[in-house]
Design a protein that fits this description.
Length: 243
C-alpha cells in the first residue's frame, strides 16, 4: 500500500491575533497543516504535544520574546525557524540568524513571499538531513575535541569537559568538519549553513565563527583550529576522523 505524502506541519507564534490568524489561514489554504500560538508559553505546550516541521516566530512578543525562544530551541534540536521582524530592525534579524534562525522576513510582508521562504527552508532542511550522511550517527574527532553528531555535544578528549552547541554553531562546525583544510569564503559558508546569500555589511558568519572559536580554541584571539585566510575566508586547519 502506497504511503500518503507527508504534509508539513507548521506552528505560527505571534501575539497579534489578526496576523496570527491570517498567516494560519493562508498556509492552510496552501496545503500545510498549520496551528498557532499567541506566546511562548502556549507554543511550548503545543511543541510538547506534537512534532512540527517549521516554526514561524515573531520577534516582539510579551513574556519570552522571539530571540530568546530561538536561542532556546536552537540549543535543543533542529526545528527550522522563520523569524518575523519589525521593518527596519536589522539588529534583530542579524542576531536571529546568528543564534540559529533559518531565515527572516520583515513586517509587513507579502504572503506569497512568506510561502516561498517556508518552502525553501523545508527543502533545505530535507536536503540537509539527507546529506548529513558522512557525519550523521558518528562521533568525529578533530584536534583535542570529539563531536557527538547525534547529541550535538563536544567533549574534550581524555576529559569530562563537555560543551553544547546551538543549531547555528552545529551547522557551521559540521560544514568545516566535512571540508577540513579547505578554504571557505564567507559567501560559501553562509550558503552552506543557511542557503542564503550575504547582504551588504552582513557579518553573520564572522560573528558565528567568533562564537565557535570561543568554544573550541585554546586562545580564541589566536585561533589555531579555525584559521582566517586573508582575502579568502576561513579554514579548519586540522585533521578529522570518524570514530
Amino acid at each position: 500500500m502506497k504511503e500518503s505524502p507527508h504534509i508539513p506541519r507548521i506552528l505560527v507564534v505571534d501575539d497579534h491575533r489578526e496576523i496570527r490568524d491570517a498567516v494560519t489561514r493562508y498556509l492552510q489554504k496552501n496545503g500545510f497543516r498549520t496551528e498557532s500560538a499567541r506566546d511562548a508559553t502556549e507554543m511550548d505546550t503545543k511543541l510538547a504535544a506534537g512534532k512540527y516541521d517549521l516554526l514561524v516566530l515573531d520577534v516582539m512578543m510579551p513574556g519570552e520574546d522571539g530571540l530568546s525562544v530561538c536561542r532556546r530551541l536552537s540549543s535543543q534540536g533542529q526545528l527550522p525557524i522563520l523569524m518575523l521582524t519589525a521593518l527596519g530592525e536589522e539588529t534583530d534579524r542579524i542576531i536571529g540568524l546568528e543564534i540559529g534562525a533559518d531565515d527572516y522576513l520583515p513586517k509587513p510582508f507579502n504572503p506569497r513571499e512568506l510561502l516561498a521562504r517556508i518552502k525553501a527552508i523545508l527543502r533545505r532542511h530535507a536536503r540537509n538531513e539527507l546529506s548529513a550522511g558522512a557525519l550523521s550517527g558518528h562521533s568525529v574527532q578533530f584536534a583535542d575535541w570529539i563531536l557527538d553528531t547525534d547529541r550535538r555535544m563536544l567533549t574534550k578528549a581524555d576529559t569530562d569537559i563537555k560543551t553544547s552547541l546551538t543549531t547555528a554553531e552545529f551547522k557551521l562546525l559540521t560544514v568545516f568538519l566535512e571540508r577540513p583544510r579547505f578554504v571557505l569564503s564567507r559567501d560559501q559558508l553562509l550558503d552552506l549553513t543557511s542557503g542564503r546569500s550575504a547582504q551588504v555589511f552582513d557579518r553573520t558568519i564572522d560573528n558565528q565563527v567568533s562564537r565557535l572559536r570561543r568554544k573550541i580554541e585554546t586562545n580564541a584571539s589566536r585561533p589555531e583550529l579555525i584559521t582566517t585566510v586573508r582575502g579568502g575566508g576561513y579554514c579548519l586547519s586540522c585533521e578529522v576522523k570518524n570514530l
